[in-house]
Specification:
Structural class: alpha+beta
Number of domains: 1
Shape: elongated
Strand order of the largest sheet: 1-4-5
Bound molecules: zinc ion
Radius of gyration: 14 Å
Largest sheet: 3 strands, antiparallel
Helix content: 10-25%
Length: 73
């Protein structure tokens, strides 16, 4: 869905990218690789199908994927 902009559930092409809002203190979708601070917050970008409401979550930065791998792997 991120790459095709085509909903896998309903085949709608009305897909919108919803970025993390850095101004929000406790945005629910982020992944924290440190329990101490918000410094190591990894934003999770959402892609929402406006046809059926299906949502995908993506970590978009390769460096952040590596960080998650180190923390939880
Ligand atoms: Zn859909």
């Amino acid at each position: 869905m991120k790459n095709t902009f085509l909903c896998p559930k309903c085949s709608s092409r009305h897909i919108v990218r919803v970025p993390d809002n850095p101004g929000r203190h406790a945005s629910g979708n982020n992944i924290y690789t440190s329990s101490l601070t918000l410094f190591k917050k990894v934003p999770v970008i959402r892609y929402v199908c406006c046809g059926c409401g299906y949502v995908e979550n993506w970590v978009e930065q390769p460096g952040q994927l590596a960080e998650i791998g180190r923390t939880f792997g």
